[in-house]
Amino acid sequence: MHITKVVIKNYRCLRDCKTTLNDKLNIIVGNNECGKSTLLEAIHLTLSGQINGRPLVTELHPHLFNQAAVAEYIMALQAGEAAPPPSILIELYLADNPALAVCKGTNNSLKENVPGVKLIIEFNDEYNVEYASYVADPKIIRTVPIEYYAIRLRSFADSDITPRSIPIKPSLIDASTIRNNAAASRYVVDIMKDSLSRKEQVDLALSYRLMRDRFLDEAKVAAINTELAKKKGSISSKTLSVSLDTSSRTSWETGIMPQLDEIPMTLIGKGEQNSVKIKLALETSAESHLVLIEEAENHLSHSNLNALIEHISATRGDRQLIITTHSSFVLNKLGIENVLLFGRTANATLKQLTLGTQDYFLKLPGHDTLRLILAQRAILVEGPSDELIVQAAFKKKHGKMPLEAGVDVISVRALAFKRFLEIATVLNLQADVITDNDGDIDALKKKYEGYLDKPRIKIRYDDDINHRTLEPQLLKWNDRATINDILGKDFQTDANLLNFMEANKTEVALRFFETDKTWVVPGYIEAAIG
Fold first, then answer.
1. Which is nearest to 409 in space by CA: 529, 294, 493?
2. Beta partners for 152?
3. Contacts of 342 (CB under 8 A, 6+ apart)
4. In Å, how far are 173, 177, 338 from 14, measured between CA atoms?
5. Is 401 within 8 Å of 395 (Cβ atoms)?
6. Same domain, yes or no, for 200 and 141?
7. Is 28 part of any domain?
8. Are residues 52 and 94 in the same domain?
9. Chain-centre distance of CA 133, in angstroms?
10. Hey, which of 6, 261, 383, 393 has its CA 20 to 30 A from 280?
11. DSSP string, 113-170
């Protein structure tokens, strides 16, 4: 059993969002503030009825509602219109399964006849009289009247349900919500509970209670209680004593401290804590299980992240996993075909990539694929010297660095160009390739066959085969005196200057990048920077 689609309306930053999920692995990528975390939170909230570890009924507040929807509501009231209060809808569409027949129906926004559940936060008509008084003076209204709202969890069969009746058990792992060491420890204990059988939990609780009972048998404790008993009458008519709290049935959860190599979890580094949480969640046994992971790469070194991703790949089994990331390494290692490019209103997948491209990035996960995926526009270059020249040319023309204008200049290994262009084509991204002609225009055209006529992809090169690479091109478009001046050299022939430039590519590019002297950008690079 797994979630096939998620529909979210008016929840936090997600005004109207529809997302289709893979049955096993989903890697959610997107720019900051696009709603990735909100998506995970909404799924977990619907399945568990909790937010920030507390029941929704105690955490309901106006900021859960989409700001734009609230603004429209208030503007309409102040304009004298009878606007209904905004509502929140979160729908989880489940894979069709006989075990889910009781929650199958068409009572959903897409009118699909499938199993599913929906969380609705809406105005409660029982408060019509009070609400009429609330909106009597629209000028003083600043937000939604959550005091008049009701929370409802219903199946697509249009029946009321509770989180306990939903067969999919979620585990949300988000290090950013752990605000202190004690909370981190409790977080791990909560996951540990799920990995223990019922008998093991009972045995642990019994052992913990017996340990507390033995506390009173300690001689020093008995002596203290004897002295306290002498105060009877002067402080209270009852006998005063000390003991340990035995009132809570689950007190072991608050008294037990997880340890690694006999070191308390609170003293372990955050990276190790995150790794333990994720691994415990994946090890948790349940009939149906969903794991939601917020940025697994947090606080982890490259080697430790690699080990964690290997563990996730090996142990996730049939569980549905939804993971958000800002790491190209994570998405390449887990499989770029599982990537969901997420936005507040639309999203796209990379399932259309050829198996060769999927396998390429899986085997060589160091590529900055995420930079391409998230760029408003990308310029792909062949190496660090090309990157410096393009950066310098862009700033020279536009007065700002490319990234400030939403353009990412990415240095790509030679064999990876067409792999990157395949991604750009699938996602309809704008990408320019700046490349050397290497003295063979026909070979270059053959190399980029299939991409020469793409409207949003441009292959930029100079067709002068006498100037094969970047350094000869710089000398072609600038005379020797200009380049000598930029480099602080005094070469007397073009040949000697060119030999130096080709032997010191990065140093030369850096001089062009840093100079405030006038120089001419080669035409094919000028075309790429716009």
1. 529
2. 120
3. 19, 28, 29, 30, 34, 35, 36, 39
4. 21, 20, 22
5. yes
6. no
7. no
8. yes
9. 43
10. 6
11. -EEEEEEEEEE-GGGHHHHHHHTSSGGG--S--GGGEEEEEEETTS-B--GGG-SPEE
Task: Tell me what pLDDT residue 284 has.
Answer: 59
User: 285 and 396, same structural domain?
Assistant: no
C-alpha span between 434 and 462 (Å, rounded) = 10
Quick one: 407 and 485 in the same domain? Answer: yes
pLDDT the model gives residue 285:
45
Tokens of 229: 């008993």
Q: CA-to-CA distance for 344 and 359, rounded, in angstroms?
A: 30
Query: pTM, whole model, 2 decimals?
Result: 0.79
Positive/negative CA dihedral, 358, 361, 367, 370: positive
State how far the Cα of 275 lies from the Cα of 312, in Å rounded to an integer. Answer: 10
Structure token pair of residue 506: 């990065």
Q: What is the DSSP code (8-state) at residue 521?
A: P
Q: Hey, what are 289's tokens?
A: 């299980």
Residue located via tokens 């994720």 = 278
Question: Rounded CA gap, 281 and 195, in Å?
Answer: 8
The reply to whether 271 falls in a domain is yes
- Do 71 and 134 lie in one domain? The reply is yes
pLDDT 10s digits, 501-512? 999 999 999 999
Residue 91: per-residue pLDDT: 98
Residue 16: partners with Cβ closer than 8 Å, 6 or more residues away: 8, 9, 10, 345
- State the residue for tokens 């526009």: 377
pLDDT bracket for residue 183 (50, 70, 90): very low
Range of the domain at 430: 375-529
What's the 3-state SS for 55-78?
Answer: EHHHHCCHHHECHHHHHHHHHHHH
Report whether 506 contacts 385 (CB < 8 A): yes
Q: Which residues contact 283 (CB under 8 A, 6 or more apart)?
A: 195, 315
In sequence order, what are the residues at sequence separation of 6 or more whose Cβ sits closer than 8 angstroms to the Cβ of residue 236?
A: none
Residues 58 and 198 in one domain: no
Which residues does residue 290 pair with via DSSP β-bridges, in sequence order? Answer: 170, 320
Of 310, 326, 342, the one marking the end of a domain is: 326
Number of H helices, E strands in the chain: 21, 20
| Among 94, 90, 71, residue whose Cα is nearest residue 9 | 90
Nearest to 306 by CA among 268, 275, 260, 342: 275
- 221 domain-assigned: yes
> Which has the closest alpha carbon to 141: 240, 234, 74?
74
